[in-house]
Design a protein that fits this description.
This protein has helices at about 1-30, 90-95, 105-115, 140-150, 170, 200-205, 210-220, 225-235, 255-270, 300-310, 320-330, 350-365; strands spanning about 35-40, 45, 50-55, 60-65, 85-90, 130-135, 160-165, 185, 190-195, 275-280, 315-320. The chain is an alpha/beta fold.
């Protein structure tokens, strides 16, 4: 027994020294992969408050998550007198970790509105403009509704923009149980209900347990944990297609019905808080794919269906994709993807964000 204890102690000491040496080597080499996401009891997962660093999994963006848990500088919930405040809800296209903060369409929109004294929306606001980015990667409309309820509404915006990604937002709203997030369903009385069974999964219970919270808290301090976490995430997010146009997933009629009800609920809650509400939609890679012959025959069918739903609710709507397609074809631009990283696929690059903001700013001014 004494020999076994001695061997175990020697092995443990050796392992501890090896881990410390590996940690030191990674720090000396400048290896750093901040974990920008964390577990969240209400939304399943969310951006990690205070995280800061460089995102390099796709594109390369300098990222700063404020203490409230959304991208940007720390900001008081109470706004200064005369300031126009706009909140943007969305998924990874809004979050836009792939580019520097000043290059996102959210920040470009703020710059445009701040510099346009003739903007009708600013008529009663002489104190400047703040456009807040509440986008979180992989969110669907349900999680965006919860983001409004539990975070964005505290900042009392004058205008709320919901940015819909036509590539997968509708399938994200399918009423099926998820392992890592809440899901909205319609009950027997056709009323929206939230399914929070994700809280009972082993993975969620582990992450909220004392050991899980300890490891999660250490994630932005240990370079070794960051490296292991990054390797896991890169393996899970490897592109599954080659240099061909991506194919959009098809959402069920039930998912579309839920999308309509979720947007209606969000619009109603925003209005009850005294703000105006509008919807925009980004482009999907196949809609602006560089090879015209490989695009879908009806690239904007989802925008047309969404537009019809929003028209019935009298919600202002701007689909960005049709104009972006014309601009991409006219000037031979690649708006999605990054050089050396599957150009044409994935998220907007700097040019995609720039053209989106240029189209968005004058429309917002007329709301």
């Amino acid at each position: 027994m004494k020999r076994w204890i001695a061997n175990f102690g020697a092995l443990s000491a050796g392992l501890a020294v090896s881990l410390l040496l590996a940690e030191a080597a990674l720090r000396i080499a400048g290896v750093r992969y901040p974990a920008f996401y964390t577990v969240d009891r209400e939304r399943g997962f969310a951006l990690r408050p205070g995280a800061e660093g460089v995102w390099s999994r796709e594109g390369r963006g300098s990222v700063r998550i404020n203490q409230a848990g959304f991208r940007g500088a720390d900001l008081s919930e109470a706004r200064a007198p005369g300031v126009l405040r706009v909140a943007v809800l969305g998924d990874s296209f809004t979050e836009a970790l792939q580019v520097d903060e000043q290059d996102t369409f959210v920040q470009r929109l703020q710059t445009s509105l701040s510099g346009d004294r003739s903007c009708a929306l600013r008529r009663n606001f002489a104190g400047g403009v703040e456009v807040l980015n509440f986008g979180v990667g992989a969110y669907g409309t349900g999680q965006e509704l919860l983001t409004w309820r539990h975070l964005a509404r505290r900042y009392r915006p004058d205008l709320v923009l919901l940015a819909v990604y036509p590539g997968n937002d509708f399938t994200d709203n399918e009423p099926i149980p998820r392992q890592n997030r809440p899901v909205f369903v319609l009950d027997a009385q056709d009323q929206l209900q939230i399914d929070q069974r994700f809280r009972n999964t082993a993975a969620f219970r582990w992450r909220f347990s004392p050991p899980g919270r300890l490891i999660d808290g250490l994630m932005n301090h240990s370079r070794l944990l960051q490296l292991l976490n990054e390797a896991k995430n890169r393996l899970a997010s490897r592109p599954s297609s080659g240099p061909v146009a991506p194919v959009a997933s098809r959402a069920s009629d039930r998912a579309w019905q839920l999308t309509d009800r979720l947007i209606g609920a969000l619009a109603s809650e925003v209005s009850a808080d005294g703000a105006r509400f509008a919807v925009i939609s980004t482009s999907a890679p196949e809609q602006v794919w560089p090879n015209v012959q490989e695009r879908p025959k009806q690239p904007f069918a989802r925008e047309q269906r969404l537009g019809a739903l929003l028209a019935q609710r009298r919600i202002p709507y701007l689909p960005l994709a049709p104009t972006l397609q014309r601009q991409a074809d006219r000037d031979r631009l690649v708006l999605h993807g990054f050089e050396g990283q599957a150009p044409g696929q994935g998220h907007w690059n700097r040019m995609g964000h720039q053209l989106a903001a240029e189209q968005l700013a004058p429309w917002v001014c007329q709301l």
